[in-house]
Amino acid sequence: MCESFGSPTSEIIGGGFLFYSLLDVSAGFIYNKNDMKKIILIIIILIITFSYLAYRLIEGIRLGNGGSQTEVAENYDHNSLLPEAEESEEKQENILVFPVDQFRQRITKKPFGIYITPQNSPVQPERFNGYHTGVDIEYEDKTADVPVFAVADGVVRLARTASGYGGVVILEIELGDTKHSVVYGHIRPSSLPQKGEIVKKGDSIGLLGTSFSTETDGERRHLHFAVLSNNSLDLLGYVQNKSELAGWIDPEGLFGE
User: Fold this and answer.
1) Does 85 lie in the same domain as 148?
2) Residue 60 sits in which domain range?
3) Alpha carbon 92 to chain centroid distance?
4) Can you give the pTM of this predicted structure?
5) Alpha-carbon distance 70 to 13, whole Å?
C-alpha cells in the first residue's frame, strides 16, 4: 500500500533519515564512522518496521470495528441477508391458507372440542352429541356460492357423499414431516373434486352446499373443518370421550394471525 505525503509513517521515516544524516556528520569525531553507520542503519530499519506494523495494527482495528462501507455491505448481503431470505421462504411454505373466507370470524357456534348435546347445543334442533372434532364455519346468512379452498398442497383421498355431511372431501397434506388428513364437510356434491386429484394451496376444491338440503344432509349451511393428527380416513364429527380428541388437532392453532 502506498503512503500519501505527510502520513505519520512518512514523517517517521523522514525523521529517521534526518537523524541518520546529523549523526553521520558528527560520528567521525566520536566513533569509528563505519561502525556508527551500521548502528544507525539498524535503528532506521527498526523505526521503519515498527512504524509499518503500528500502521497496520491501527488499520486492522479500524476495519474490525466497522471497516469500509463496501466491506460491510458485502458481509451483510452474503452472510446475513441470504440466510434470512432462505429461512423466510421455508416459513412461507409451511403457512396454511384459510379453507374459506372469514374463517375465524365465522366460527361462532361450534369450536373445536366443545361438548354438544341436544339440550345444550347452540344449534337447534340438534341431532348430534359428543365432543366436536373440528370447527364449524357458519354461512347461513350467505346465498351466493361460497368456495372452499385447499389449505396446503395435497392429494384428494376421499370425495363422496356421507351421512351427516352430504358432500365431503378428505385432503391429505404434509405439516412438517407428518402427513395429515383434512376433512371438509357439507360440500355441494356436484362440485366435489376427483379422488386422487393433486391440488395446490389455495385451489378451489368445492362449494358449500345449500342449507337444509341433500347437499348438506339436512344441515344448515356451514363448513365442518377438521384436521386429523394422522392421515387416516376418519369422518367422525364427534367422539364420545374427551381423550379421543387426541386424534385431531384444533384447526385454529394451525393458522397464522
Assistant:
1) no
2) 8-92
3) 5
4) 0.66
5) 31
- Integer-rounded Cα Rg, in Å, for the chain is 39
Cis previous bond, 83, omega within 30? no
Residue closest to 158 by CA, chosen among 125, 131, 126, 196:
196
Chunk the chain into consecutive blocks of 10 residues (it has 257) and report each block's average pLDDT, rounded to whole numbers. 48 51 50 63 75 69 51 42 44 78 97 98 96 98 97 98 98 95 98 98 98 97 98 98 97 86
| Nearest by Cα to 227 from 178, 168, 182 | 182
Structural domain includes residue 23: yes
Q: Which residue has the cell 466491506?
A: 71
User: 99 in helix, strand or coil?
Assistant: coil
- 69 part of a folded domain: yes
Q: What is the pLDDT of residue 113?
A: 98
What does the pLDDT read at residue 169? Answer: 98
How far is Cα 222 from Cα 165, in angstroms, rounded to an integer?
10
234 grid coordinates: 376418519
What is the pLDDT at residue 70?
44
